[in-house]
Hints:
By secondary structure, this protein is mostly helical. It has 2 domains: about 5-30 and about 185-325, Orthogonal Bundle (Cytochrome Bc1 Complex, Chain D, domain 2), CATH 1.10.760; about 45-175, Cytochrome c-like domain (Cytochrome Bc1 Complex, Chain D, domain 2, Orthogonal Bundle), CATH 1.10.760. The protein has helices at about 5-15, 45-55, 70, 120-125, 135-145, 150-160, 165-175, 185-190, 200-210, 250-255, 265, 300-310, 315-325, and strands spanning about 240, 275. It has a two-stranded antiparallel ribbon with strand order 1-2.
Amino acid sequence: MNMSRLLTVIVAALMLLSSAAFAGFEPFQPLPANPPIPSDNPQTSAKIALGKQLYFDNRLSATYRVSCNGCHNVMSAGDDGKAVSRGALGIEGKRSAPTLYNVAYQTVYFWDGRAASLEAAIKEHLISPTEMGMKDKDAVVERLWQTGDYKEIFADTFGPGVALSYETITQALASYIRTLRTPDSDFDRYLRGDKGAISAQAKRGYNEFIEVGCASCHFWVNLSGPVPGLAFQMGEGFYELFPNYPGTKDETRYQLADDIGRYYVTKEETDRRMWRVPVLRNVALTAPYFHNGQVKTLEEAIRVMGTTQLGKVLSRAQQEDIAAFLHTVSGRFPTQKFPRLPTSY
């Protein structure tokens, strides 16, 4: 039994317990008011503001042409709507760029879970040839050291004696990204007791989502498994085999098994085709779907998940009902305004 199936069994067992300790356990919960914050990178308003400047600054890319927002557009749904993105050096990535909204509730990062924290993921992004394309860490620091007032801004933000460094750059970016939350979805209001917050069709879809097996992996606050501090700690990933039923026509049509996922990270045979379970919040707004971005519509993604992951042929009515439910998990996006950037000398 793989980890996700094992955890599902544990969750089911806990729900059956009648003790007071588990009386409040629910597999689906509204988005919490605040995400987990690491003790070595506490949130401050100054750090968040600096991180926002860096997020929108093209000067963090090798060619001065791409910002973090280029592939993760927070003015929209936090992604770029492409199957795969093209980085600063013009090189395409191999996997679809996910939304950054609500990523602060994840325990690991990237599709294969190779980054144990948001800060670690950012450190890789900045020097990746398929993303920001900077030569190395020193090149990133040097770029900002020579740019406008960043030296003074970093000193004001992190305090005297704390140099502008690769560590403080990634800490500031992570602090801003942790503010990208989309609370108060219709489904959140439904979970809080407003039974009229979602339609009758969405309620049918919610029941179908559970009954057909989608909820065995897509549960908890982000519909992607445990959040840090529940069953898993930060750095411990929640993974699932995909495709779970190999050899289907859909697998071939959409090249779903061409990339074998976490195996490339660990070289462990048990990790072949294992993937971090993706977040489903705002999923109706973040097409195309899957790690390679090959499926263009939500209804088709639901159908393909039925054949490749559940071994089931979902009817058109089931697909439409589940899609109606998934539309209800789109939350309220925070207002984003382009920040003032330091001028170049």
